[in-house]
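Continuing from the previous page...

OK, I double-checked the sequence for SDR family oxidoreductase against my notes and this is the correct one:
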Amino acid sequence: MCLLTGAGGRLGDAFCRAYYTTYDIVAVCRTRVPAAPSQEEWFIDPVEPWNPVPENESRIFVVRADLSRPDEVDRVVDLALAKYGAVDLLVNNAAQLDVQPNGLVDGDAALAAFGPQFTLNVEVPLRLATRLAQRCWLHRGAENRARNRNIVNVSSLSGSRVYPGGQAVYSASKATLDHLTRHIAAEFAEFGVRANAVAPDSFPALVPTEVVAAAIAELDSGAMTGGVFSVGGADPVRDSGTAGLAAASPGPPG
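Thanks. Re-ran it with the corrected sequence; updated structure tokens here:
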């Protein structure tokens, strides 16, 4: 089972549409709902309404939540475990990007953007990972390894590069998420849960969104842990990659 945050965004929507028949997906979204069959709809063939429709056989389970609010992470974990009993893949995709066009010299805008971005981009992934560890993964090492349980954090190339346009706070949050991923991988290895991050270039402008979604699925099916893997971008460097992924260097990649 996959617990996916940011399911209503561009990448979350692409992941749900591509993999709703592969995974049981708990799709966490705040407002927009992914364009994939869900518990909120039932498909009927207008010509032969008595015949089964393939879209009804696999569906995502939509959960609406504002993860920046206190206690929402716990509610989401409760619902996911109540629905499926366990989580095999956690995809931390929800993110907030606020730019400061006047740069850091406009201290008020940068400071106002700091809390909300670090909450959603760093604190929420940490809360979800630790809650699932406490509620589902601890003391189940053999089961975790057998089911190849893991976390994929969605980072950004901006976590390791300096881009114009006032992205300093956002970039800092992604650099923090990258290194947090490495620490989670090191600590969760004790009970057999892997952790990696994907750090895509701008999508869909420079990298097709479907390629980024495929990179998440590739990390889930693999055995790697503790890496931050770029998707797109001119840099060939980054830990050692697999098809479609280039691994991040030991410094704070993104």
